[in-house]
């Protein structure tokens, strides 16, 4: 009799596990994303050379070296914001016009013929930098100059130039403080403009620039501690100036051994710092970062992403929007409750040619309604999984109690 009850109990346990398996599977996938791996779906880079003039040639080489590295590892130009004085390649004192080199042998031209400078010359200002980060742009600014990130974006922010205790000079004309960058990152977090940020800066007293950060999911590193200079790596006698900074040189040297599929971690990068070679004390701040840097890959910030997010399919009895084969955005169907006429066309669609086919005209209301339906669908699925988990647990407890009572 007891043997029969044990068989019944085992059968009930297996039945309950069938109910709970989908919920546990979903939760375990979320745990993997939030723990060991990153949950981001796109990578961006903001590279800033805050200096100008010929004698700051090395700062331009620093930024271009980082630009070459992130492009090589898969971040496209469309996802890179490059801010550069851009006054060295074609300077009259440059013996190699149109070229920028970062070593004495001049084996690699960092400028080349395939770079896209988004902000050049006097466009490299504190105001423009902060506007790029926070997204507070004038409508006239083209998409190529915007940081079009979201809450699934990992952003690599690199800055180089002349600095001091909690400030960095821009164009020898103005300064940005550690408080300014910290507040900009907080605005980005509040506006859901990033998933994680990796901040790197090469300047004198660089580590003071991330001392005021307070926003979550930010990992930061710098080339030198307070009251300490950041030194150049080497001079080129033909060019006549220093061609790269020491800290950036060794970071780029380490990155040369990384490819798009590398499993090298951020901990490996930080372990590569050699104070004797760099001649300053690089720092790392990781208290705001939610992941173990031993599991955070270098390519989570320097590389492209092949990961995509699949949204739930919308299912309504009477769909109020559809996809036109020739368009990527939702459009209003022919049966339109809000017909577009000359009198109520918004600014976003004024340049669309009006034809007899209304499906060719996107409508803002359709976009908002689509987003609302998506959010509602996602919320219903979450609620369903929660209710199912609790119901399964209650059923399991009830069945175990019943079997135990029968056994007595």
UniProtKB/TrEMBL annotation:
Signal peptide: 1-25
Sorted UniProt keywords: GPI-anchor biosynthesis, Signal
Domain of life (superkingdom): Eukaryota
Pathway membership, UniProt: Glycolipid biosynthesis; glycosylphosphatidylinositol-anchor biosynthesis
GO molecular function: GPI-anchor transamidase activity
Keyword Signal: yes
GO BP terms: attachment of GPI anchor to protein; GPI anchor biosynthetic process; proteolysis
Any single Gene Ontology cellular-component annotation: GPI-anchor transamidase complex
Active site: 162, 204
Family classification: Belongs to the peptidase C13 family.
Record-given protein name: GPI-anchor transamidase
Native species: Obba rivulosa
């Amino acid at each position: 009799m007891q043997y029969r009850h044990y068989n019944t109990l085992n059968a009930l346990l297996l039945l309950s596990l069938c109910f709970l398996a989908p919920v546990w599977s979903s939760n375990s996938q979320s745990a993997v994303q939030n723990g060991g791996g990153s949950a981001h779906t796109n990578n961006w880079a903001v590279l800033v050379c805050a200096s100008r003039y010929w004698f700051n040639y090395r700062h331009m080489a620093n930024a271009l070296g980082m630009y070459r590295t992130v492009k090589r590892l898969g971040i496209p130009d469309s996802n890179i914001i490059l801010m550069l004085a851009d006054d060295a390649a074609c300077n009259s004192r440059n013996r190699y016009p149109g070229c920028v080199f970062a070593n004495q042998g001049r084996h690699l031209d960092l400028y080349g013929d395939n770079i896209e400078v988004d902000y050049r010359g006097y466009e490299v200002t504190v105001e423009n930098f902060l506007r790029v980060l926070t997204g507070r742009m004038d409508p006239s600014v083209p998409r190529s100059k915007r940081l079009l990130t979201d809450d699934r974006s990992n952003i690599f922010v690199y800055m180089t130039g002349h600095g001091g205790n909690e400030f960095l000079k821009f164009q020898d004309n103005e300064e940005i403080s550690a408080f300014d960058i910290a507040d900009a990152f907080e605005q980005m977090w509040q506006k859901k403009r990033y998933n994680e940020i990796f901040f790197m800066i090469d300047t004198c007293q660089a580590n003071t620039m991330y001392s005021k950060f307070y926003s979550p999911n930010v990992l930061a590193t710098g080339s030198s501690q307070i009251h300490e200079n950041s030194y150049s790596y080497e001079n080129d006698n033909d060019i006549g100036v220093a061609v790269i900074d020491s800290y950036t040189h060794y970071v780029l040297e380490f990155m040369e051994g990384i490819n798009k599929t590398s499993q090298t971690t951020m901990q490996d990068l930080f372990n590569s710092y050699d104070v004797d070679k760099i001649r300053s004390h690089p720092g790392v701040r990781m208290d705001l970062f939610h992941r173990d840097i031993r599991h955070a890959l270098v390519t989570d910030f320097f590389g492209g992403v092949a990961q995509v997010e699949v949204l739930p399919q919308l299912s309504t009895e009477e769909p109020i929007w559809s996809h036109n084969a020739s368009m990527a955005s939702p459009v209003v169907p022919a049966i339109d409750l809000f017909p577009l006429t000359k009198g109520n066309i918004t600014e976003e669609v004024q340049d669309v040619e009006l034809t007899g086919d209304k499906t060719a005209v996107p409508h803002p209301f359709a976009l908002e309604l689509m987003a609302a339906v998506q959010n509602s669908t996602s919320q219903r699925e979450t609620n369903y999984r929660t209710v199912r988990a609790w119901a399964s647990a209650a059923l399991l407890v009830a069945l175990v109690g019943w079997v135990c009572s029968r056994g007595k």
